[in-house]
Structure formats: structure tokens, C-alpha cells
Amino acid sequence: MDNKILLKAIFDGLSNVPQKPNLEVLYCSKSEGEQRLASVEWENIGVEQTNDFLFKDGKINQNNCGAKWNTGTKLFREELEPQIIQFFSRYSFTDESIDAINFDLSALINYKSLQREFDFESIFYDQMFELYTSGYIPVGYEGDYPNGTFYVMNPQSEPSEE
């Protein structure tokens, strides 16, 4: 799937009235969500899940998967990152929160765009995509993945300062 289409689906979800996701979640305020985004625990879960589907069964070494992943990351930085920064700045997120969301979206969009070609399978990233398109930003996880629950926030849960 095209990266711009994926990002549009995410932005549309976050811009509209949130829909109840099809999975159990723990809701938090924007201020609590920003604290959770900054946690090492949340960052580590994302890195572990990315490594799981990239390195599982040696997929990273098959059919130029690693090269395509790196190219996707480069294109993300050049084409999508400025849009992400602009979008989340509208909601008065801190730079640190925008960086964390950007990191998550980079892996998520790369995963979704290469999923079919490389037969990637990640319940974690499929759930994250569902949460974003439902209008929520995943910001943490209660419990040990996969035996737990996502923390989510709505970017509109507290008024932005404009």
C-alpha cells in the first residue's frame, strides 16, 4: 500500500470523532499520553516488535527486504516526516512526543507498505494501525506484550493552545 495513502488514513482517523476500537484499550489524557510516549518501555516494545517481524525466519535477508526497508525509511523521512510534524504541532504536542510518534509511524507505515511483498506478520503493528485509524494514538502498554492492553490517547482530548 502506498505510504501517502497510509498516512492519510491515519490523519483522517485522528482528525475525526474517535471510533471505539475493536480491541480492549486503556484511555488516558493527552498529558498522561505524552508522558507515556516518552518512556523507554514504550520505545522498547516498538523496537522489539519491529525486530520480531524483520528478523523472523531471516526475512531481512530475503529479496532485498533490508534494502527496501531502509529505502522506505529514507523516503518516510523525506516525504512524510514534515507532514507528521506539521499535523501533530497543530495539537500542541511537545517536540519529544512528536519524535516518538514519528518513530512509531515510520515503523508502522514501512511495515504496512511492505507487508504483502514480504509476508510480514505483526499483530502489534496491525493493532496499532487500527488504533490510529480509529482516532487514537497508542502511547504505551500495560502488561507484557502480547498479554496486556494498549494505552491510547485522543490528540483532541485536551484543548490545544492556538
TrEMBL record:
Name the UniProt record assigns to this protein: Uncharacterized protein
